[in-house]
Structure formats: C-alpha cells, structure tokens
Amino acid sequence: MGTWRYGVILDAGSSGTRVHIYRWLNSDTARKSASKAQLQSLPEIETDKQWTKKIHPGISTFGEHPHDVGPEHLEKLFAHALSVVPAAEVPKTPIFLLATAGMRILPPVQRKTVLKEVCDFARKTTKFQLPDCDLHIQVIPGETEGLYGWIAANYLLGGFDSPKDHDHGKDHHTYGFLDMGGASAQIAFAPNATEAEKHADDLTLLRLRRVGGDPLEYKVFVTTWLGFGVNQARERYVKAMLEASPGAKEYPDPCMPSGAEILVADNGKVVEEKKGAKGHKVVGTGIFKECVRQTYPLLEKEKECLDAPCLINGQHTPAIDFDVNHFVGVSEYYHTTHEIFKMAHKDDENYDFKSYQKAVDKFCGKSWKQITQGVDKHKFGKKVDVEKALEVCFKSSWLINVLHDGIGVPRIGLEDLNSANNVTKAKTHKGKDKGYLNPFQAVNKINDIEVSWTLGKMVLYASSEVPPPSTDALAVGFGSNEPGIPSDFQHPGGSYTSHGATGDDWHDHLFSENPRRIPGFLIFVLILFIFGFILCGRDRRKATLHKFSRMFGAGGSSGGSRSRRRGPGFPGKLFGLRSSNTPLYERVLEDGPSSAHSDFELGSYSDVSATASDNDHSDSGDGGKTATRFGRSSGWATPSIKGGSAGGGGGGVLSEDDIMAQGVGLGLGMGRGGGFLGRSDSGEGLAVRSRASSPRRKGVGGRLHD
User: Family assignment (predicted)?
Assistant: First the structure.
C-alpha cells in the first residue's frame, strides 16, 4: 500500500459530467507525521484544477440508448482519471458516479438501465475499486447533495478543525450552505441550540472522525427545492406568461433586454432558431424592477405551511438565526453575481443587495444591441457569451427573490437587518478576513479549492478510513437524528486497512460481486501451474508424473509396471518425455535448489508516467517540467506542494489510447492495501424521519427508489 490514497468521483449533473480526483495520506502515514493539532483535524484532502475534466451533455441524455453511455461519454473521463492516479494505486482507488437532478427526472426504467451500463462499463474497462454498484453508482437525493456541500464548505473554511477560530457566538462555529443549479436548489445549516432542540426530528445526524480517531458529530438541517433551480424556474415563468395571455402574437418579457427576441415552446423551453421553427414569440422590454415583481410568485410562498416556520413552497425550515448562521452560496449564486457584474468579481468583496441591484438594473436597462456589442468586445469578460447575457437578467431577479424573500437573507445596504422574515438578528462584517461572518457571501473557491459537494463526499469517505479508537466506537456516516446507529444510517464505504497490509482477506471479497469470475480464475491458475511445471526441470517432471501414474494407474504396482511398459503416454508426450528404460526417480527433491520455483516469476508492470512516489512532501520538480500546484486545506496551515504527475513521479505523459489500454480489463482488485469498501445495503440518501409535514416526509430521503 502506497503513502497516498486516491478517490475518483464523477458528478453526473443535468448538463454534463465532471470527474474529480482527490488524494490524501493513508491513516498510518498521516498519524506518524501529524502534529497535535493535525491529529485533531480531519484527513487532509488534496486536489488540483488539472485533475478535473467535464464533458457534455449529461448521462440522462442516454436514457433511450444506454449502451452508448460508456464509449461515447465515460471513456474520456475514465482516461483522464487513469492519467492522474498512479497505475499501482488504481485497483485500490474507489470510484463513484453520483447523479443529481438530471437523472432524478428520468423514467425509472431508463434510469436503472443507464446506471447498470455505467457500472458494467467501469468494471470492463478499468481496474478501479468498485465492489458494490448500488453504493458507488447511484442517483443521490437533493438532501444528500446539500449535506455533502455543507461538509465541503465547513471543511475548507475551517469550521470543523478550528472551532475556536470560528466562534460565531452561542457555541456555534459552522457555516450555512446554499447551492443552486439548473433544476434544483439546496440549503443546509446547523440551527442554533434552541431551534435544534425544537426541531430535532427534522435534523440529520452526521458523524466524522479526526486523524487521531476522535469523533465529530453534528446535527444539520438540509432540504432541497426541486424545480427551483434557475433553468426550471425560467421555464415555469414562461409557461405562466403564456397561460396568462393565450393566443397572443407576442409576449413582452421584462426579464430580457429591450430588443431581444426568442421563440419558446408550450413547456417554456427555448426553441432553437432555424428555418421553419415554430413557437411563441417573446420580446424583451428590459424593465428589471418589473422582472423582480413578476418572478416573486414563483417562490410559491402562498402554499400552506403545515409545520411552521416555512420558507419556500410551503416546506418547513427551522428559523434561521443570522447572528450565528453565516451562509456561503455556490454555483449560480456565484456565477450570477460574478460573471458579468463587477460589484462582486472578487471573493473579498461583500454581497451588498443595494449595490448588486443597482448594477443589474443598469445592465438590464441597456438595449440588446448594446449588450451584444459589449459581448463581442469582451466587455463583460471572456467567459460571457450571448446566451449568458440573455439569461442573466432573469437569473439575477430569481436569485434576489430566493435569497431575500425566500430564505430571508437581510438586504444589506437597504433594510434593517432584523426586519427579514423567519430570521433573528444579524450583523455584518468586512470581507472574508473576518471569517465569512456576513449573512451571505457568494464563493467559488476557498483556499484555491473549488467548493464542490464532491469534496464533501470524499472528506466523509477519507474520514471513514481512519481507525476507530475502540471496537465500540460509532461508525462514520449520516442518518436520522437518533442516538447510536439508526436503521437508515448511510455508510460512506471506506474502512481502515493498515499501511503494511498484504490483503490476507482478499479471498473473502474476490467473487462476492461477480461469480462469473470463478471459471476465468481457475483457468488462470491452471495456466500458471502448466508453465511452472514446464520450467521446473526434467527430473522433477519425471518424478511428479511417476507419482501421478502410480496414484491413478490401474491398481497397485502392477498398474505402474504396465504404465512404464506402454511408454510415457499423453502426459509424457505433452511435456516432452521420451520412452526409455531410464529409471524414474520417486523422490520429490524437497531439499533441492530453491531456483526450481524462483526461476518462474511474474514480472511487475511499470509505467513511468503513472508511477507514484511516496515522498511527495518535497518541493522538487518533475524533471524540468512545470510543477503543478496542489490546493490543500483542512483548517490548519498547510504549505503548497509541488509535484509531477499525481503520484509524484516525473515520467512521460500517456496518450488517451495508451491510458485506456492500460485500464482495459476489470482487475480482481485482490490487493487489500487500499482496503475494499465495506458493502452497504443502504443507499446514499437521507432518511425519512420527521413530523408529519417536514420535508423529510416527502419521500426524498433514502435511496431513490423506482
């Protein structure tokens, strides 16, 4: 087992799939070199921007032709992962594909077939550790996605490892998490002590483990709003517009710049512009304040709240105490405030509602001709294209409504901080130098590492590999807020394996997932036996064959005599024995030269481009090549590490064809150096255990069932 442990996660979203690769020191190595502070921290996860790769579209588009998802979609992502993970570590590296909103809305039969194809393709073409498809390849609920995001944000901000440095008051040191994608939005936070006790049945119990073995336990509220992501909110908005004026020749839209025109279908989706295209004509008027007013009803706050308090869509949420709950927002919260508007183009600039609304109003008041000219001249940045410029006015209005009227974030710069609905008092500070203590701050990276829910999943997995301090220690994972291990507890899949382990129990898991491997394994053993027999020397072959002939002859010594008179027979011909009267030696040569078995030895496979170094703590380069800067953060100070390829080796770079050739053929994964993942009969979802109208009751918790 090497110094480093690796993990691969594929984030299968609605618009595309992105592969993330992470690594961390194995538990034994980390403990040997850890300071006292580091022993009280979570495992330190490393990644690099070069270790990620995204391709389009999402795997949900393969619902009607699932057999193409491997060669047309996954192959490039697997090739990228194999170019980063050292070849020797691949069989010990767990791989996960966790799908989100796009796959959630796919018909159950199609969803199941696509996931099966993903698992089969991964097993056939790579040697990554994949013992349990139900655990490793699945659609995760929005709540699980939100919980992973909450873990990632607090891990990077230091809320877990350095609680004293993040004291928000009232014995509270964690941060809230907001995420908004195209189809759904999530919120996750640890309520203050009063709210946590009042709404205990609505919380999720999360347990982690520090490098030194001590447990960390948190009670987190998390919920998701499916249909409240920016793209589906836009479709609901357009459908409402069409229904309000059926049969109109054109529809004025204040959420598009003046002069912009598009065609939309009855379902609210934009119709691609081409000859003969049919749809409803929508014309922009560019009145942003009216856009904010017309998008407010999409929050559906008029729905009955059966379990007060509620935020959006009548879903119960404990009251948010903005005095201690400070939120970071990712994905669209970041892109919509940063990609065009200079107000918040730096992370250390606070989100200020008054300044932001002023910037958006100015942009959306321009004519479409002026905006397209600005896009052509990269006035709004190189990443901004015409499509983003056309969508940003609606996205901004939706973000403002969700943040302030939906969640209740105070409108800094415009209103009294204590006037927001469903909140307590709040205070504001300047910049991230104060520890992100504002009610809301949009972020993309923290300490040069992207805030992604995939990082949260990997932190949980690495934490589960830390050896427990005692046999009765509680497991790492999450589930219902109950003492001990609740029935719906979700295990991340990792387990401790000592650094020097040789995999003595590999046979316990070898055929557990695929019994069809047994015939191939037996054939392989037989081939090894034949080659070993050929190379063991003529005398030993004669002696062995003689013993076999006596054991399986016609009977007793007479059978043996007849056998010798008839000549060597088929075995003799097979192994080149000639018929003669040369006496056969019956001794086994147990005390003979050791070379009889050592002459035959399987050579080790070597690939310079993927060779890992166990001494990656040095700052040495990669043989003249530009060193890659690793982002590292776990709450305690960690210097930058430079290295060559992922494992620290400085070899050449493989082509994609070479990489795939290297990964072809599912390995047996017999080495236990990295530890086989413990099987779990449960999925990754959050459990349903709450009062009668809480969001847990809506069937989103637990694994997504067909």
Answer: Belongs to the GDA1/CD39 NTPase family.
Domain span at residue 275 reads 229-301+331-412
C-alpha to C-alpha distance for 438 and 427, rounded to whole angstroms: 7
Closest CA to 98 of 51, 57, 142: 142
Mean pLDDT by 10 residues, the chain (706 residues): 89 92 94 91 94 94 96 97 97 96 90 97 97 94 96 94 79 92 93 93 96 95 94 96 94 97 93 84 96 97 92 93 92 90 53 87 95 92 90 96 94 54 38 62 89 96 94 94 92 76 41 52 77 74 69 46 44 46 39 39 36 37 39 39 41 46 40 39 43 41 41
Q: pTM (2 decimals)?
A: 0.70
Which residue type does 486 have?
P
Q: Is residue 108 part of a domain?
A: no
User: For position 433, what pLDDT does the model report?
Assistant: 42
145 is a catalytic site residue: yes
Give the end of a domain, one of 412, 442, 475: 412
51: alpha, beta or left? (left if phi > 0; alpha if psi -120 to 50): alpha
Which stretch of DSSP H or E encloses residue 436? Answer: none
Same domain, 246 and 391: yes
**E strands, 83-231, in order:** 95-99, 137-139, 176-180, 184-189, 204-209, 215-226
- Domain final position from 395, 412, 429: 412
Q: Is residue 590 part of a domain?
A: yes
Task: Report pLDDT for 677.
Answer: 39
Assign 3-state DSSP to the chain and report helix, strand, coil percentages, each to 5: 35, 15, 45
The pLDDT assigned to 519 comes to: 63
Q: The CATH number of the domain where 346 resides is what?
A: 3.30.420.150
pLDDT score of 526: 80
Going by DSSP bridges, is the β-strand pair 449-450/445-446 parallel, antiparallel, or unpaired? antiparallel
User: Which H or E element spans position 327?
Assistant: strand 327-331
Q: Indicate the number of domains in the chain.
A: 2
CB atoms within 10 A of CB 124: 12
Reference 401, options 334, 308, 311, 283; nearest CA is 311
Binding residues: 182-186
- How far, rounded to the nearest angstrom, does the alpha carbon of residue 671 sit from its chain's CA centroid? 24
Q: Could you give the dihedral angle defined by the CA atoms of residues 160, 162, 168 and 169, in that order, rounded to the nearest 10 degrees?
A: 100
β-partners of residue 632 are: 46
Measure CA of the first residue to CA of the last residue in the chain; give whole Å. 39
Output the pLDDT for position 398: 97
pLDDT of residue 553: 52
> What is the spatial distance between Cα 219 and Cα 204, in angstroms, rounded to a whole number?
5
- In angstroms, the CA 187 to CA 169 distance is 21
Same domain? For 398 and 257 the reply is yes
CA-angle at 98, arms to 516 and 607, nearest 5°: 65
Cβ-Cβ contacts under 8 Å for 18 (sequence gap 6 or more): 10, 11, 52, 53, 54
501-504: long-range contacts at Cβ-Cβ below 8 A with a sequence spacing of 24 or more?
501/1, 501/672, 501/673, 501/675, 502/672, 502/673, 503/670, 503/671, 503/672, 503/673, 504/672
Nearest alpha carbon to residue 187 among 492, 440, 462: 440
Look at residue 75 and tell me if it is in a domain: no
Q: Which one of 89, 145, 235, 450 is the catalytic residue?
A: 145
- Residue 528 within a domain: no
- Three-state secondary-structure class, residue 194: helix
> Are 233 and 369 in the same domain?
yes
Give binding residues for ATP as ranges: 182-186
646 within 8 A of 93, measured Cβ to Cβ: no
Q: What is the DSSP letter of 183?
A: S
